[in-house]
Automatic annotation (TrEMBL):
It comes from the Bacteria. Belongs to the N(4)/N(6)-methyltransferase family. N(4) subfamily. It comes from Desulfonema magnum. Residues 133-364 form the DNA methylase N-4/N-6 domain. It is an enzyme of class 2 (transferase). This is Methyltransferase. Its EC number is 2.1.1.-. InterPro entries: DNA_methylase_N4/N6, MeTrfase_CN4_CS, RM_Methyltransferase, SAM-dependent_MTases_sf. GO terms for molecular function: DNA binding; N-methyltransferase activity; site-specific DNA-methyltransferase (cytosine-N4-specific) activity. PROSITE patterns: N4_MTASE. Keywords: DNA-binding, Methyltransferase, Restriction system, S-adenosyl-L-methionine, Transferase. It catalyses: a 2'-deoxycytidine in DNA + S-adenosyl-L-methionine = an N(4)-methyl-2'-deoxycytidine in DNA + S-adenosyl-L-homocysteine + H(+). It holds the Pfam family N6_N4_Mtase.
Amino acid sequence: MTKKSIVAEKRNYRVKLVDDAKKIASEYLKNIELSKVVRFGLPEIDDRYHCWRVPLVSQNKTNIGEIVIDAFSSLVSEKKTTQKKVLESRLLGRKTGKRKKRTNDIPKISNLRNTIGLGDSEALLTETPLESVDLIFTSPPYYNARPEYSDFITYEEYLLKMRKIIHQCHRVLNEGRFFVLNISPVLVRRASRSESSKRIAVPFDFHRLFIEEGYEFIDDIIWVKPEGAGWATGRGRRFSADRNPLQYKPVPVTEYLLVYRKKTDKLIDWHIRKHPDKEIVRQSKVQDGYEVTNIWKIHPAHNKAHPAVFPVELAEKVITYYSFINDVILDPFAGTGTVGKAASNLKRRFVLFEINSEYIQYIKNNIDKWQNTDVSSINWINSESVSYQLNFNLE
Ligand SMILES: C[S@@+](CC[C@H](N)C(=O)[O-])C[C@H]1O[C@@H](n2cnc3c(N)ncnc32)[C@H](O)[C@@H]1O
């Protein structure tokens, strides 16, 4: 064992070996399209900050920066890593002190076409081009505390997986654009009469992940389901029978929509003023009858094919308020494709990733009901009957 791997072992780091650090760093360089021109120095552990530092050198062996990897989570810390622009300037031998203001500083228009991918979104997102989507709206898989029903061994494992996907989402999201997350606390039922049920405050743990991954908190919207959402848990019934104080437990009838924005120094106004198509901006204006407060009353949706769908009305509101016509809307946990349907109805493009082939099949069977979508032009990824290729064709 090397000294580095002994330290890594002792600290219980996920990234234990020099080779692990190099592999993560080389994936990162591939993503920022610099893998052909940048080489690595020898990665070092910095156990004061619990990270690996991978030095970057140019072809002529000049040091041009470093990639910093969180040793616990194995994620690249983009805040601490030398920025792509700086690396490029240094490779070209330019001074990086004062940058001239760019005159052609306009929002990027994505050239992705409608895409539906079968697979783990963490992997599919690494194949998705940098800054190619304009809005992310999703509801993540639930953490199920009972191991027999859960894909995740512990809650920490679950959060780590979610962090990796949120991290990749940050890479593919366009500058200053929004990530809206539908989420609510999870109820863990009691295993026996001698135990009590528990609620895990999942939204608040996600909030921390978003802030750490480079998003800024914008709003919390409360989705109220007039019919209630938790009667099945028996919470309401039990209390109404006994009425003992301390045993009070309200029936949950809400979920959150947490709104985040990819950090930027640009004002929102910049996206509107500098949008290259003024007609699109005009057509995208939000019509009368929009939600004025952060309490939205919307009936929940049910679908025999999936246990946890959200209503298309909810997705349509989010898409109307947080994107322009023709924008690309991503849902990394697409389920039955509600976000795709809403995007399509509202003349936006969509990118949907889903790990369960039954739901991809459901989407295939129902997509002809979506408005404005030419089914034959969809880019299907890993979907047996259509294509096996990971293939992000441009328009
Ligand atoms: C809460 S559901 C989303 C339902 C969706 N909003 C709808 O209306 O149909 C979460 C979905 O994420 C999928 N999923 C879980 N882990 C995934 C992963 N790593 N990559 C892609 N999809 C995943 C699940 O199969 C599930 O369909």
